[in-house]
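Input record (Table S2, row 334):
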Amino acid sequence: MIERITVLGAGSWGTAFAKVLADAGREVTLWARREEVAEEIRTARTNESYLPGVTLPTLDATADPARALDGAQAVVLAVPSQSLRANLTAWRDLLPAGVTLVSLAKGVELGTLKRMSEVITEIAGVPDGQVAVVSGPNLAREIAQGQPAAAVVACADHERAVAVQRASFNSYFRPYTNTDVVGCELGGACKNVIALSCGMAAGLGLGANTMATLITRGLAETARLGVKLGADPLTFAGLAGLGDLVATCSSPLSRNRTFGERLGRGETLKQAQEATGGQVAEGVKSCSSIRALADLHGVDMPITDAMHRVCHEDVDPRKVGAELLGRSQKHEWS
Ligand SMILES: NC(=O)C1=CN([C@@H]2O[C@H](COP(=O)(O)OP(=O)(O)OC[C@H]3O[C@@H](n4cnc5c(N)ncnc54)[C@H](OP(=O)(O)O)[C@@H]3O)[C@@H](O)[C@H]2O)C=CC1
Ligand SMILES: O=C(CO)COP(=O)(O)O
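Output record (NDP complex):
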């Protein structure tokens, strides 16, 4: 049984997941980038900047990575996807040998076009089977409030997935196992981009039919990419596919959806970034890396392409909307 777990990253999801683990009976140490955040978690049992009003269970917290990683049996990586490489490079010599590495990040790296587990195996120099991914409909604030939710723990090594499942299962958090790491990671990364599009539609004043269309066609393009890269198509009907997509596209708690809504209301990228105060909306960068990955593999992802053009080529959301509708007509599954 995994008993001692270190969570690296004390933002919304890192803190909420540390709570999940502590509520599951694990001994948890949470690493925060800033000492004042670590001190607040240790002494006041709160992290007001990320989870206001939430009382945390007993947790150790530190800004010292060496102290955080000492004796860890599993290490959870909860930093933004575009900084994971730099962070892990700084931490890799501190990782205990054979430790299970768990990724919470949902993104595809710009430049390398790697999934997060690929970045981790490369930087930590560990085999695929040592890296697990947790993904699913897991809006941090709801989980931190103890609202029921399920997730998937995906790992090429089934036994390791079961160990993480057992370590994180509690009265409100129900993890399932899966061995389809590619599908689970792509589901998590792509849904952030589709959530941007749903937010944008909401910002333009559009209703439920448009949302459902974007969700369904978003899932179709995600599955198209996933299958091309070796994922199991069934994964996209599961928690890390449809589940996460529906939660993120529908909830005002989603940073990606909220960001898209601002763009839909006419804000520029810069204005939306300033208004969301540095909180990570992974889809803004992932729309470019996922688009490049799709291009590399000859996969058509029109919604993702549209989001890239709005976010990075300053194209009007109304224009990409009209273009999406005017694409050449085809069979639903071609
Ligand atoms: N929030 C959610 O509901 C969910 C998020 N995720 C995924 O989890 C990952 C982490 O997201 P989340 O916790 O929400 O993000 P937040 O934006 O809430 O927090 C980011 C955390 O990472 C730290 N951080 C930011 N930039 C860097 C950097 N360059 N180097 C080191 N640390 C950094 C921040 O520290 P500081 O405070 O000092 O800036 C903060 O602790 C993302 O990939 C996200 O998609 C997955 C499921 C649910
Ligand atoms: O991944 C998430 C829910 O599962 C969180 O989504 P946001 O990053 O859009 O807030």
